[in-house]
């Protein structure tokens, strides 16, 4: 096969240009990215060779080598890891356009510089960061256990070439033809041995494979110098906590998470004895693009005694904590464990339980001690965390305890403990209402009496809220109660007495209206939740809310039709007037229909027959002119 030239996709080109020309102020990090990839490749070949003795992979001296050539102005980063096949090179290196690129580009266009860096950081364009320092990049690779090598080359502009390379050794070698502009800058001359020493020490010290600086070519009459190992190779999670600096944690976080930011919080835990393990976990600052997409990956890697076993280890973290990044290193597992075995493993479930508790406790500590960090966390990951209210019954109270919710108390979200402290005397429930937005809920007629009497209401607007509120009974013994469902009891004894009298007075009206609106509502009754609106629709305690119905429709499912209850405000002139007219024997069924339609509109609902409603209303208005 001869050389093929392949065009980058348009999106990929745009992304590259943005990254190279406008975003990174710190170019040194390209080396961190290449070393990180090489380290992953070494992890993979060790595991592959262990699991498949027939593979024929070489694993004797696994390492990473940096070969600077000041004369030729090149830097080569070489590993003898797993390597890539031709198809893999095209797929992994030739395509920067991972899922979400288009969306990312759209967001980038609107973003300022600082924000743009953040966005790209979430996306992670690891290998391509080489083009920040190189005009041209060559990559030669051979997949372990195969004998067909591949050479790839690109200037990072429009296209790349790919051709066979028969003499390629196992693993991958990336040669950067360094930009002339960096040669002048002593601190950033990437063909300079001291610069390389410094960068590796800063960004890649914890890499568990040796990162060697190649020996220097001999000067006249001298011998080639020995290669020199630049990193300490100490796994960070195995070092005493006090000996690891924040910077080191941050670099390690970047290595495991492929994120470019610092972590929001670092979590360490360890156990000794029969189940020995160490874990180093991180809460990120920014949610990845795919956090709420189906099949989002989990961020925890499994190691066994410093040996990498797998990425995305779902046995170690529940789905609702998929945003947690890091590693767990377990001492007593077989290197051969499969995902299936892990799911059954008692030791792994014990680790998982402890890890969940620790993460939740950390979130609680953040809230108590670092309110700003907690606010960031909640903003990014609160929605995911609340999924745990349904899926993790054992930790439900704890999750509730570290969650926060928008509330009528103020602009800042509140915790439930704080809500309980503010509860009024005699208040027996935590009141909430679900809906599409804070404004919509606050404007809803259901709020009237609660606002009037000073009861705090939680305003729940995440789609997941619609679901958990039905599955969760209460918090520390106080039940949750929707203000849009069932009867509300906010009345004083005096008011109750009055309500009793009104009930008798309006009994005939309610009965008549129940008949007229039979197709749409299951009952018409008097309300104690209204002060200014004439009528409101409410659900029975276990009925679906209108928002949940909408969600079903959005997913293409028609929810079962539930008739709701129409409540009337006995102090509203429209309602008292209607009562008198009906008692006088006039046919007011159209007014009843209008009243029902208005209640639907007031809560942001959709009319069953809008044309008919408009016709009735127009007729009515006409008569008033
Ligand atoms: P990421 O590391 O976040 O996946 P990169 O752009 O750094 O993104 O790399 C893309 C992919 O290319 C890697 O996931 C890996 O599969 C492959 N790759 C990159 N460098 C190497 C290497 N040295 N050896 C083997 N595979 C590599
Ligand atoms: Mg990478």
From TrEMBL:
It is found in: Cytoplasm. Belongs to the heat shock protein 90 family. Molecular chaperone. Has ATPase activity. PROSITE patterns: HSP90 (PS00298). It comes from the Bacteria. Residues 26-182 form the Histidine kinase/HSP90-like ATPase domain. SMART domains: HATPase_c. This is Chaperone protein HtpG. Residues 551-625 are annotated as: C. Keywords: ATP-binding, Chaperone, Cytoplasm, Nucleotide-binding, Stress response. Homodimer.
